[in-house]
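User: Round two. Same drill as before: sequence, then structure, for each protein.

Assistant: Same drill it is. First protein:
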Amino acid sequence: MRVNKFVVAAAAVAGQVLLLASPAVAGAAAPEGKYCAVQLGKSSAGKNSPVVAQACSNTSLAEAKATMQIRHQATTRARGETAAAAPVALMYLYENVNYNRDSQGDMTAVYVPENCDTAGYRFEPVEWWKNNVSSVAGGSTRCNTSRVYNKAQTSSAVFKIHVEGDGRWLGGYSDNVHHFQTYWSLG
């Protein structure tokens, strides 16, 4: 079992759902839970999209997503901002090749405030995922392509990440990811 050494803001549902404070998320080890949901915000070109909420669950992705949304809405209200729109799925990270179909593994769903455009979103996963992601799938038809950068940031490759696309195995980028630039591409 992985132990998160960073601040846990709240625990609920008999210890199965964990919410992490936003500052702890950026450098944290993988949070507890088989299923995680991460909400990104917008950023300027070339910068990582900030993590604005995150939750994990040992029960289901739906539970992790619901808890993440509650956390994001509470943060938005506390800052006096307009209620956040329903998040759009950017991509799904899987611990094993072929989307964990052949062997069980952890997964994380990454959500964004609006659908992808040609610039998209830059997502740098927590250290555990950098060393363990083996396949990815796009979350919406508008988030269909991801440029994956290796940990050393000396090379990158473009993957079509629709289900059954190139993302079912990341090849030389499997367990070797620094960040993803996920966007919409016509071709």
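Second protein:
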Amino acid sequence: MKINDMQSKLADVLYQECLLHVEKLKIDLKEYTVFSYTFYCSSGCEDIGAAACTREYLDRHGKEKYAPPLWFSEVNACEWDYINKHYNLFGKSGEYVEKIHYLIDNEPEDGEEEIEEVDLDEFTVEELSQFTYDFFSAVMIKVQERLLQDGILSAAPFEESLLLGIQFSDPSEEAERAVKRASKQLNNEKWHRKIVSNYNAVYTHL
């Protein structure tokens, strides 16, 4: 299978699932102001869902006794209030993501499908990991660009300046690069600076 064909198929499925997810979100959060809408992934993009957060929750959360600083909570989905809600809507894409991971991680037997254009057997572990993040992040960026172009995220309860991109539950170095790359392509300068500054600040405080 060609890489572009695989990515296009997954993007089409994810887009349709996001349409359903956004409709659910609009019902659930109709009384609130949503400032973020991102994909939310496990390590290696083995699972892909969605995450969002409201201004109202962020304000309440920031007043809790042991809450992290606002700059962290604002751009890290692990602190948000709408994480992987209605995850069942992403079932079809989840099946295809699982199939793609199988093709990436396993040497094909006779007659089995395989990824064309690259010889994954020649990749180091690090190169294979980077290929995986690059593959899935390109798909997620494409889907969010389409959501923007179609005006799906332009009406209430979404803010006009919406934080977009990809978030990970436990980001590795490859995941961090994917987050920054998606942010640069999807977000305005203000949000992108916050994403980049977040990682710089986290490393400073380690």
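The chain has seven helices and five strands.

User: Perfect.
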